[in-house]
Structure prediction request, 102 residues.
Amino acid sequence: MLIRNPGAGALALTLVAGALFLVGGIVRIVAAVESSVGRAVLLVNGAIAVVLGLIVLFNIWESTLTLLGTLLGVQTLVDGLALVLFGGLHVSGRRSDSVARR
Prediction:
């Protein structure tokens, strides 16, 4: 399909990417509601992913060839920042546990 009709293949991959953005964002928002550690980070990350997914799905023709790469880059940056923030929360949590044990 991708070789015979690259436009249809790009459209299908764009739909899959938009759905993944949307579902990933919803899962992060649900995880933020369930978790007490890093709730704000998960909530912001999930909201950004949901917005990006909706942008892709509602602007499918513009997203197919140009916008998808940019949005994927934005999502990757946001995920990386969230991982750095979670790492900082995890390290600060361990420090407070070790201080409390002494």
